[in-house]
Amino acid sequence: MRACLWYDFKKHTTSAASFRTLSEIFDDKVLTQTQVYEWFEQFKTSDDSLEDNGRGNPPQTIHNDILKQVIESDPSQTTRELAQ
After folding, report:
1. Which class would CATH give 2-44?
2. Rounded CA separation 12/77 (Å)
3. Taking Cα atoms as reference points, which of 34, 42, 36 lies closest to residue 22?
4. What are the Cα distances from residue 10, in Å, to 13, 17, 20, 24?
């Protein structure tokens, strides 16, 4: 989706027009108009790349083997308890 937005941005298409086109093609299931606007703003302010800059998932802070040991020591723990 980001590539489609970048393409429209490079063609000087407005964010509203890009949103309408993508909504027609993908049936409003992919991005909101606000998200499209935010991507266009990002492209305008210098983030002119298609790379994922680490947004989204937070870095993993515990190793799986440690987590496995904790779970095996007390399998009745909830995910909320394990997160602490």
Report:
1. mainly alpha
2. 54
3. 36
4. 7, 13, 17, 20
What does the chain come to in residues? Answer: 84
Neighbouring CB atoms inside 10 A of 18's CB total: 23
Domain boundaries, the chain: 2-44
The tally of CA atoms less than 13 A away on the side-chain side of residue 38 is: 5
Model-level pTM?
Answer: 0.56
Show the tokens assigned to 10: 């490079």
Can you tell me the distance from the alpha carbon of 25 to that of 28, in angstroms, rounded to the nearest whole number? Answer: 8
How does residue 29 score in pLDDT terms, banded at 50, 70 and 90?
Answer: confident
pLDDT, residue 30, reads: 79
